[in-house]
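TA notes, week 10

Several of you asked for a full example with nothing omitted. So below is the full record: structure tokens for the whole chain, then the designed sequence directly under it. When grading your own attempts, check the secondary structure regions first.
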């Protein structure tokens, strides 16, 4: 295998996949999540309740989908939701990372390393 083919396989393919997931996240935000977030903003609930509910839902998704895809796709959603609800970008991203990683650590499907541990110990 030549150096160009190796570069395409090891560098270009994963970067292209991540770029595709980011585009999917932005498309989700623009088409579905954006209008939904604006409606949620008008609910008579404290803003932190709405933000934590969103993070809980994304954490539950990471139980099945895995933490890496959820983080890449949901980051634009979490940051936009945080801005609409009065949080800064860094706090929203940190809250997303914590909720998705804690939830995915609870499931063998949520984190690939957990599958190895489950296979070795028969869990």
């Amino acid at each position: 295998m030549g150096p160009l083919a190796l570069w395409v396989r090891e560098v270009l393919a994963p970067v292209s996949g991540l770029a595709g997931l980011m585009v999917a996240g932005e498309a989700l935000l623009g088409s579905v999540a954006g209008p939904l977030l604006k409606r949620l903003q008008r609910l008579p609930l404290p803003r932190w309740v709405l933000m934590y509910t969103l993070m809980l839902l994304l954490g539950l998704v990471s139980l099945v989908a895995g933490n890496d895809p959820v983080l890449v796709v949901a980051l634009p959603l979490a940051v936009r939701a945080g801005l609409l609800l009065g949080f800064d970008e860094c706090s929203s991203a940190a809250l997303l990372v914590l909720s998705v990683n804690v939830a995915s650590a609870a499931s063998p499907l949520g984190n690939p390393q957990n599958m190895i541990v489950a296979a070795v110990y028969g869990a």
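The chain has a mean pLDDT of 77. Use that as a sanity check on your answer.
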